[in-house]
Design goal:
Bound molecules: iron/sulfur cluster
Order of helices and strands: EEEHEHEHEHEHHEHEHEHEHEHEEEHHHH
Helix content: 40-55%
Shape: globular
Largest sheet: 8 strands, parallel
Distance between the termini: 55 Å
Strand order of the largest sheet: 8-7-6-5-4-3-10-9
Number of strands: 15
Length: about 400
């Protein structure tokens, strides 16, 4: 049985389509400080391994925008910057190269600021989510409608949309979240009647599991079964990996997403890459074919950051110094010649599928593999230095943008 989905327009968030006939996507949000580049990337990789398709990071200060300049080129999934009160942070985030923005109409209210952000987003073709939140509704609308009402939330979104239209910007998705399930369900229903813009579903501040999971599921699943919703996020007071898992599981349980085989994640490649990541990932996909091995396998371009970034994957391989470093759950387990990377991945995946990750780790000398990885890591750092992605040049531009 399938649900008939409401017809929406499609937009692209990086390489991920949202709306139209694209699969419904799972989103989550990092809870690290965005300025903490390594910590944030580690969380992003853990989220991607848990089934997250798009991730949001806060961009609340210049240091966060600077962090994004370093995170974006190394993230395996598109990054959306969450903007709070300062419209200049939206401009800085776009300078950093983010794939999308989220603006709260209740927080940035001056029309000239909204138009400035939308015009820049139009020029750069960066989509924006209009993220209305019941708790931070524009006070004028609160007054007009006599409280947080579905009508007030929809009007807030439509008003923001008009500012966007004034500068010819239409790469938009909308959310009208509230912590009350009946309120958000009604607001989304009204919005779905009013527009064909893709919708991002969520129950805001749902709280800790299990109550938060139930609340979020009640709201999101109700709407999905009515055919409403193009992308979803569980907002839990928990490790965001739980949000991503819950989102993924909900979609799988409703028959809206499927996973039976290898879930191959690969870094997008960046200035540090030691191999052609796209080619190796493609060959690995071909080698696994449609075999029923439901493991997460990571192909990473460099041993400097790869094993750490993809530490949540069951198995992965990272390149360095013409060798492939295999790792299981972030632990180095073996070194193989570059030409045997794909073959070894398949072999290890078969072993893990049959015996589990602990048995795989137990069968090798991990200390030796780690020593080899450390050697190649040191050599790569020597060759390419610490800023292989030229992020520092972008940071100089961000500072100029914010100070202008
Ligand atoms: S090449 Fe290395 S640093 Fe660059 S995205 Fe891949 S794993 Fe991360």
């Amino acid at each position: 049985m399938t649900f008939e989905r409401r017809k929406t327009r499609q937009i692209m968030v990086g390489k991920v389509p949202v709306g139209g006939d694209a699969p419904i996507t799972v989103q989550s949000m990092t809870i690290t400080k965005t300025a903490d580049v390594e910590g944030t990337l580690q969380q992003i990789y853990a989220l991607a391994a848990a089934g997250c398709d798009i991730v949001r990071c806060t961009c609340n200060e210049t240091e966060a925008a600077e962090g994004l300049a370093q995170i974006v080129p190394r993230s395996p999934i598109p990054i959306i910057a969450d903007i709070h009160h300062q419209y200049k942070m939206a401009l800085a985030a776009m300078e950093a190269g983010v794939h999308g923005l989220r603006l709260n109409p209740g927080n940035i209210r001056r029309p000239e600021h909204i138009r400035a952000v939308a015009a820049e987003a139009r020029d750069r073709q960066v989509p924006i989510r209009i993220g209305v939140n019941g708790g931070s509704l524009d006070p004028a609308l609160y007054e007009k409608w006599g409280g947080i009402k579905p009508e007030a939330m929809v009007e807030s979104a439509m008003q923001e949309l008009r500012y966007f239209e004034e500068v010819d910007f239409d790469l938009v998705k909308i959310s009208v979240k509230a912590s009350s399930v009946p309120l958000m369900v009604e607001a989304y229903r009204q919005l779905a009647d009013a527009t064909d813009i893709p919708l991002h579903l969520g129950v805001t501040e749902a709280g800790p599991p299990p109550a938060g999971l139930l609340k979020a599921t009640a709201g999101i699943a109700t709407l999905l079964m009515e055919g409403i919703g193009d992308t979803i996020r569980y907002s839990l007071t928990a490790d965001p990996v739980e949000e991503a898992r819950a989102g993924r599981q909900l979609l799988e349980s409703l028959g809206l997403r499927e996973r039976k085989n290898i879930d191959l994640i690969a870094c997008p490649s960046c200035g540090r890459a030691e191999i052609d990541v796209i080619d190796v990932a493609k060959r690995a996909m071909e080698a696994f074919g449609d075999r029923e091995i439901p493991l997460q396998v990571a192909v990473m371009g460099c041993v400097v950051n790869g094993p750490g970034e993809a530490r949540e994957a069951d198995l992965g391989i990272a390149a360095g110094n013409k060798r492939g470093h295999l790792f299981v759950k972030g632990r180095n387990v073996a070194v193989v010649p570059e030409s045997e990377m794909v073959e070894s991945l398949v072999e290890w995946a078969e072993f893990i599928h049959e015996h589990g990750t602990e048995a795989a780790i137990a069968r090798v000398d991990t200390a030796k593999a780690e020593r080899e990885a450390a050697k190649d890591r040191a050599q790569l750092l020597d060759e390419k230095g610490a800023d292989a992605n030229h992020s520092n040049e972008k940071i100089v531009e961000i500072r100029k943008t914010v100070q202008a």
